[in-house]
TrEMBL record, chains A, B, C, D:
<comment type="subunit">
    <text>Homotetramer.</text>
</comment>
<dbReference type="GO" id="GO:0004107">
    <property type="term" value="F:chorismate synthase activity"/>
</dbReference>
<dbReference type="GO" id="GO:0010181">
    <property type="term" value="F:FMN binding"/>
</dbReference>
<keyword id="KW-0456">Lyase</keyword>
<keyword id="KW-0028">Amino-acid biosynthesis</keyword>
<keyword id="KW-0057">Aromatic amino acid biosynthesis</keyword>
<dbReference type="InterPro" id="IPR020541">
    <property type="entry name" value="Chorismate_synthase_CS"/>
</dbReference>
<comment type="pathway">
    <text>Metabolic intermediate biosynthesis; chorismate biosynthesis; chorismate from D-erythrose 4-phosphate and phosphoenolpyruvate: step 7/7.</text>
</comment>
<dbReference type="Pfam" id="PF01264">
    <property type="entry name" value="Chorismate_synt"/>
</dbReference>
<dbReference type="GO" id="GO:0008652">
    <property type="term" value="P:amino acid biosynthetic process"/>
</dbReference>
<dbReference type="GO" id="GO:0009423">
    <property type="term" value="P:chorismate biosynthetic process"/>
</dbReference>
<comment type="similarity">
    <text>Belongs to the chorismate synthase family.</text>
</comment>
<dbReference type="InterPro" id="IPR035904">
    <property type="entry name" value="Chorismate_synth_AroC_sf"/>
</dbReference>
<dbReference type="GO" id="GO:0009073">
    <property type="term" value="P:aromatic amino acid family biosynthetic process"/>
</dbReference>
<dbReference type="InterPro" id="IPR000453">
    <property type="entry name" value="Chorismate_synth"/>
</dbReference>
<dbReference type="GO" id="GO:0005829">
    <property type="term" value="C:cytosol"/>
</dbReference>
<protein>
    <recommendedName>
        <fullName>Chorismate synthase</fullName>
        <ecNumber>4.2.3.5</ecNumber>
    </recommendedName>
</protein>
Amino acid sequence: MSTYGHLFRVTTFGESHCASVGAIIDGCPPGLTLSPEDIQIQLDRRRPGQSNLTTPRNEKDRVHLQSGLELGVTLGTPIALLVKNEDQRPHDYSETDLYPRPSHADYTYLEKYGVKASSGGGRSSARETIGRVAAGAIAEKYLKTAFGIEVVAFVSSVGKINIPSSVPSSSPSNEDDDDVEDALSEEFRNLLATITREQVDRNPIRCPHAETAERMTQRIIRAKDASDSIGGIVTCVIRNVPSGLGEPCFDKFEATLAHAMLSIPATKAFEIGSGFRGTQVPGSKHNDLFVRREDGRLGTKTNWSGGVQGGITNGEDIYFRIGFKSPATISQAQDTVQYDGTPGFLAARGRHDPCVVPRAVPIVEAMASLVVIDQLLIQNARKTAASLLPPITTLPPTMVMPGAKSSAA
Amino acid sequence: MSTYGHLFRVTTFGESHCASVGAIIDGCPPGLTLSPEDIQIQLDRRRPGQSNLTTPRNEKDRVHLQSGLELGVTLGTPIALLVKNEDQRPHDYSETDLYPRPSHADYTYLEKYGVKASSGGGRSSARETIGRVAAGAIAEKYLKTAFGIEVVAFVSSVGKINIPSSVPSSSPSNEDDDDVEDALSEEFRNLLATITREQVDRNPIRCPHAETAERMTQRIIRAKDASDSIGGIVTCVIRNVPSGLGEPCFDKFEATLAHAMLSIPATKAFEIGSGFRGTQVPGSKHNDLFVRREDGRLGTKTNWSGGVQGGITNGEDIYFRIGFKSPATISQAQDTVQYDGTPGFLAARGRHDPCVVPRAVPIVEAMASLVVIDQLLIQNARKTAASLLPPITTLPPTMVMPGAKSSAA
Amino acid sequence: MSTYGHLFRVTTFGESHCASVGAIIDGCPPGLTLSPEDIQIQLDRRRPGQSNLTTPRNEKDRVHLQSGLELGVTLGTPIALLVKNEDQRPHDYSETDLYPRPSHADYTYLEKYGVKASSGGGRSSARETIGRVAAGAIAEKYLKTAFGIEVVAFVSSVGKINIPSSVPSSSPSNEDDDDVEDALSEEFRNLLATITREQVDRNPIRCPHAETAERMTQRIIRAKDASDSIGGIVTCVIRNVPSGLGEPCFDKFEATLAHAMLSIPATKAFEIGSGFRGTQVPGSKHNDLFVRREDGRLGTKTNWSGGVQGGITNGEDIYFRIGFKSPATISQAQDTVQYDGTPGFLAARGRHDPCVVPRAVPIVEAMASLVVIDQLLIQNARKTAASLLPPITTLPPTMVMPGAKSSAA
Amino acid sequence: MSTYGHLFRVTTFGESHCASVGAIIDGCPPGLTLSPEDIQIQLDRRRPGQSNLTTPRNEKDRVHLQSGLELGVTLGTPIALLVKNEDQRPHDYSETDLYPRPSHADYTYLEKYGVKASSGGGRSSARETIGRVAAGAIAEKYLKTAFGIEVVAFVSSVGKINIPSSVPSSSPSNEDDDDVEDALSEEFRNLLATITREQVDRNPIRCPHAETAERMTQRIIRAKDASDSIGGIVTCVIRNVPSGLGEPCFDKFEATLAHAMLSIPATKAFEIGSGFRGTQVPGSKHNDLFVRREDGRLGTKTNWSGGVQGGITNGEDIYFRIGFKSPATISQAQDTVQYDGTPGFLAARGRHDPCVVPRAVPIVEAMASLVVIDQLLIQNARKTAASLLPPITTLPPTMVMPGAKSSAA
């Protein structure tokens, strides 16, 4: 449904041509300093019309906070917000309405609901993501304030063009002789460890590798000029997440992360850590050996796991990739059929994004923040509850964590 | 937590060395004929010791139904079932207990709970999956009986060895000139359309391509002989799923599917339809054009979407891939540290699966069935509710489905 | 939290002095004809300032629909709506702010959140109920359209003044000789079977017994003149609810109903059917014997159960009572302490409702509708699922319902 | 459904004639010392056959723990437990099976599911409550260990026989002149403040007032001798609950409490604090004025609210009453109809409880514990999250709690 989360719970509403889109955020910790600008900055990154690579429909997309705050501080009560659809003239009927757009949601919405919005796929509109981005920005503000958590996403692929360090340098022919280093280069790992949003935003494509960004830009322009579209991959890293997040066995951290990411429109694939490529690497090379950190805590020498082991965060960086398909709405003629089965050619009218990944970056960051804050609140509950019990004295020391009674996450 | 699903809800329990493992299945449709054998058949496929490729620990893993049935018919009330841990001798302490196993859940469970099972990762034990498989078998029985739905998973990769038709034949050098056919060959698509469990089970590796199965077998034996492990990929197809399943916007069908799959131990990656590779293909080639089927309904000419559009099933086959990492527990010595930071070498004792994908096949099928039945029940609710309203007469015909008032899903 | 329901899900927001209050309704059946007036009519009944018995603050409380409809028909997507707080001037500080109001939420909100709205209890404001009433009106429109369900609430008591037929006529002295007829007179049962909203609204007190209404009015005026307040009881009946609603064992129909009713501000008590008084009546007199109805279905001769048996509706009228305490905010001086413990006298400023029950009537109706529609959708799912199975032939006839495979609820 | 709770989550299974009944408890805090005896003690109090007032079916009802513990300490993983149905011979068919028992669940289960257990109402069996009582005992062990929380329930009424101090001494004739003291005497309030389980268990009726207990006993014997049944009221008090529990606005503490209580079989009524009677008392007499406690915290002079204000606990004792109807199964002949509408007389075979309230006492305590622990874990999450933010410096002091950044609940 349109609600995400258990204790930090987001409910969104709105489609293309209605009065407004927005969200209610329930369960935001009280006492957080929050301004509309904390939210607007991410909405602006999501907004169409930021460059000549995205749809020119220029909406201002200003957020209007309705409740849950007073004098700039959250009260713990639901925060409602909305963004007006300034462009909400009634849908003007045309012959293209007779066709379900191929690979779009027109057909499936009609199958599901028996009725659909005149403009097509209803909630599958990209404007649905405004509520997510706004909610994610609030979650992120808390995570940054309370834990110093950093969430940074960027475009790592457009079509067949990749950040060079993000793809395997070679594929050894020997069936057994693989190495995870081939899949995830040291250069790329360094990028993950240090990348900032400022670096990501240096170009409109949101790829931090300048030369690749330029090639991606050209690729998107070629798609646009051909009345076509192209897909891509967004990579995201979350740093400074406490250990212990994730709930066995059905709500493992990566399971909830995958759920959140594949709820973003146009996504088709997700991998965490070494991902698909890592399945080729023997355990002896893939295992993340433990080391003792300077603060006395354990860390891992490598991080092929992507910060999650047994479904629970281990304190290392969490990184993952999401595949976005080529947008379905293209203006070249497609040989398809009408709702009633009559064959014909459909060419979408209007202007559409030839590639969604640059604008997907803040959406990925938002969903990542929503996953972390919800799991964090749940783990707070568990850890605090355990900390209120007397020390365990009847178990062998190997079964009990030294300092198990420490304060909550 | 340990509960999956909204209307068909599964709660599992149990770890390696406790009295039993099992599940409660709540919300099973009443009036379904169900025998222990319907469940046992999938438990047997999950069971270790089926071949020399899996751990020799031979448990009988007989299911014991506790409730929810009478005279072999489901009552609609919770079905409890359990499987005894026959091998539940107390964990005998050893020096290896001083070490958190690298890339295993020992460390993260201790971080989360402050206490852990003597045998290690608790619920991250493979025995946790028994409850899922049993629950999935019940769901599947309903889906097959009521809808003729078929769920078939198989091993498509082990390490670097793939079913030839499952991987791109070539990678054109031209940056723009990609074709989705390269990513998903006609031969492989035919395999997806027709494959049966009988074909899958012809060899213990559960790969339906005999020659590849033999190479996979040798690869696993090499891992075993080297006290090492290797990962792999499971592909799954679900056929005859009705259109309209999946809930915008956070519970899109593929989002709940990814959630379910990445809740299986050792998974790191998920893709549906054309997946990551499809992101390289322009929209004009990737879009699934509509055609009129003989029964008058719409279908799609191709199915790169994998049966889901806009997060809602369209009636075509649903297919997806899941990446399983190399098992973390290996018996060769690893240069790591103890819980207290003391450096040392850990070599796991006992026998362990060198590769999990053959046994993962029924687990993937189970989780797929749980996703489908839960979404199906939810869509039943919606479709039936809509069907009880008078016909819509005030909307333009393009907004209303012909036959919208048809019977429920 | 601020979300109610599973498949028909309402999330509300807003407090006294923020920009707006409202709700998102997710899961409304598609294809329902719905106008703002369908909602406004109940908001107007809830609105303060309808008579000299309620607070004079006259807000227009116009509903603004944001999404989920097109051309007056629901799309199945979330319906957002809001009502502006026209009176939202900043709270002007006064000495009374130093005091937590006795029996109000000021103190507990501060205990829970560590911060509170300047105006006091935040979400405990009566304006919070606007979102519920609006959502309930939408649910009710569906229930009436699809099932002819009728929900009517009214005031049966104010202070010690009761509709005569609603209270036991006498209390026999013999310990064993009680009769349920004493608790629930035939006259009152006839009232429940026939009462309409038009009858209820004939006077501002919303008590359908004219003479009693006049006495209640005088009682409230006396409370108002004394700077005091008084409580009361609302009785509600739901007619034409299908059998089979309610989920064993934790979500019995009456359990979810009690939950919903006691979530309304100022409620302290709930009883269904014969309630507390019924506990005194022996089973032989209290049991509802079955009879055969003209349509061949079973009904019950009496209905002391209030339409629910074993937690599941049986098709008879559902009726229940809710006790509302005297409003906590009164303008006479109270001998209490400040937040820091300093003793003093608090006299609330401004005008406040001396009695909430007349305005509670539409709120009770709204919550009743939300309970019924959510349980109805869930039962739709179950019943439709069962109807798709082949007939049960292996059970004795006494275990199977004749016509079990009938269409959904 | 058969699951209760969000973070401390109980799922139960089982009916009368299946192999076993039991529960899975998910989310129990790790590190809690727990023995089977902690659970058995409450199961024994629930067990039939404790005296000649309850059904003679003597089951041993021994709990068997399956998982979630090691060496007597909880691991944080699901605790499964079961109790065998020793008396599970197949239901032997009789003519009484042709009749739905009046006011029982036979008819409604068949309406809901289209199929029913041969023994009748399936999950409406009293044996369903075993899982609840076991789960509640675990919750209670945590609450007592970590917070010193005490939960004590007792029988306050059987039929028309009440503990004298529990009912209004008189009912003044003047319409305005009521006093809450009449509704809740000082003697009864003292009882609530001090009562222990030992006092409750001094007689089998579980009424702590000896003389009344004797009269209740005679009343039940009379019902039994007349092949009839009688209802009653259970009163419960929860002491030492922290302030801040309960979630606005739909999950107010009393709303979740009412939900839990009315999910117990045979319940029809619930009231908290002064309840229905309190609605007659003017606000000036009903408000709980604040006082400064010796520890510097605020308390209330009276506690007519029953420990909850604005839906959130205030730290005072929580007390409430639950009405249980007369058991529906009686052995005297009832003039009713068969499933097919044929008129006839039904006289239930076998022995049945003539009154359920003595055995309901531990069930009420169990549900109370489940409500408190779940709300406590949720509030832990919120309070800990808030405590990790920097102090609020921008709000007026009246909006911020002194010491808001204190440690978690």
